[in-house]
From TrEMBL:
Alphabetized UniProt keyword annotations: Membrane, Transmembrane, Transmembrane helix
Annotated transmembrane regions: 6-27
PANTHER family per record: GENERAL STRESS PROTEIN
A Pfam entry, by short name: YtxH
Descriptive protein name: Gas vesicle protein
Highest classification ranks of the organism: Bacteria, Pseudomonadati, Bacteroidota, Flavobacteriia, Flavobacteriales
């Protein structure tokens, strides 16, 4: 989990706790109604937290997928570059071999 998401989670939980505490202190209702409000508040906070978790999970999946695609593309580019360089080296070596054969033929005459 990223640091930003962790801070957001801590702030959300802290805000919910402060809200519940203030709600209890200033509640004009009876205890049963106050408990019902707390229960509803808990359900709302839980639902909100689940939505944020699902959004974060989707975002991370998307980032990993795009990173994987970028990595695969970079790998293919690297393989292609190496293949081209290999062909250049082989051509250079064949040219040098031909020159050496020519020099060797002159020496053998």
């Amino acid at each position: 989990m990223s640091n930003n998401a962790g801070n957001m989670l801590i702030a959300l939980i802290g805000g919910a706790a402060i809200g519940v505490g203030l709600g209890i202190l200033f509640a004009p209702d009876k205890g049963t109604k106050t408990r019902e409000k707390i229960k509803d508040g808990y359900k709302d906070a839980k639902k909100d937290l689940k939505c944020k978790y699902d959004d974060l999970t989707d975002e991370m999946k998307h980032k990993f997928k795009s990173t994987k695609l970028d990595l695969e593309e970079s790998y293919q580019d690297l393989i292609s570059d190496v293949s081209h360089k290999t062909e250049d080296v082989i051509s250079f070596l064949e040219m040098k071999l031909a020159e050496l054969k020519e020099q060797n033929a002159k020496l053998q005459k």
